[in-house]
Structures are given as structure tokens and as C-alpha cells.
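Hello again, I could really use a second opinion on something today. I owe you a coffee for this, so here goes:
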Amino acid sequence: MEPRINLFATQTGAKLAKRFAGLNAVLHESTLPKSVIELVSLRASQINGCGLCLDMHVKEAIAQGEDPLRLHLVAGWRETTVFTDAERAALALTEEGTQLTPLGTSDETWEAVRKHFDDEETVALVSLISLINAANRLNVITRQKGGDYQVGAFAQHG
């Protein structure tokens, strides 16, 4: 399937891309570990089937020095030994925040997140999960494709 529309070719799309890049920059300036940012972004994108975001976050994570094995194992994080307890808490919140139910996220997951992340990091994590889900939805609805992403390209829209 071909993309339905070029999101960045319209005035509104270009403005949104700039705002997304600005929000992304705020998250990367936060104290939330960069590895958590990429793992969370990757996991939400897997759940949502966003090829463009999968392409972007795999390449960005590798460029930041992430172990490719960990990236391959993100979908099965519960059954692996390569993620820290903090990363596991972030991935659990990502899954619950991406696949929302009427009950929202569990108290157990929230307690795990708060055990490992301070207020600043928790705000960044919750915002990141919200932002990546919004980006996934924009790209999936309009059928944007992955495969051609160049590291740092999204930052160029800022």
C-alpha cells in the first residue's frame, strides 16, 4: 500500500512535525535515560504496527550505542534477562498505556514505575508514551512506510 498523503507537504503537517520535534527534544533533554526512550518508543510502535516509527527508533537506538540484541528482544521483554527492572517497569507502562482499557493502567505497574523513576522522569515517561502513540496513529492512519529513515532526520524538522 502506498502512503495516503505526505504529512509534511502541507502547512499543517509541517507545523505539527516541528511541534513533535520540539516535544521530542524536551524528552531527550530530560533525565529519562535515552535507552528507555528508545525502548519505549520501539515497544509502542510494535504494538501499533507503525513501520515508520519502528524504522526510526531502531536506527536511532543503534546510533546511540544500544545493543541490537536488546532491540530484537523488546517484543518479548517479559521472557528475557536483558532488561533492567526500571526498563521492565517502563515497558509495562508502555504496553498498558498503549492498549488502554476502561481501567487505565494498573496500580502495580504504576508502583513499579515510581520505584524506579523520580517525578521528572515519570512525567517524561508518561509524556513519551502519549507522544509516541500519537505519532504512531498519524503514521498508521496515513500508511507511512518505514525503511528509508536516516538517523537524526526527525530532529531536522525542529
